[in-house]
Amino acid sequence: xxxxxxxxxxxxxxxxxxxxxxxxxxxxxxxxxxxxxxxxxxxxxxxxxxxxxxxxxxxxxxxxxxxxxxxxxxxxxxxxxxxxxxxxxxxxxxxxxxxxxxxxxxxxxxxxxxxxxxxxx
Length: 121
Description:
By secondary structure, the chain is of the alpha/beta class. The chain has five helices and five strands; from the N terminus they run βαβαβαβαβα.
């Protein structure tokens, strides 16, 4: 299936999402420090990204913009996975280049359905 990079600073959440993706047949690349995510993405060339928004610098909004500024990731699907459930955060995330948005806690099947939809685009 797909190689997916998960950028999440909460280790239990990172491990949970990675396990879900692995059980669904994907290769999960985990990054707990958003400051190294761009470099690691350049080395591993993931086919999709799952980004948390509330992280130490750079936050998920900025990381999303940084990924979109890289020509090789300009069209790579990005799913925001965050606890922020307000309209402003959703608008800013989509404006930063995210393809979709899901709020934690989420039903497992919803996350996997969104990942599948992004990969099928």
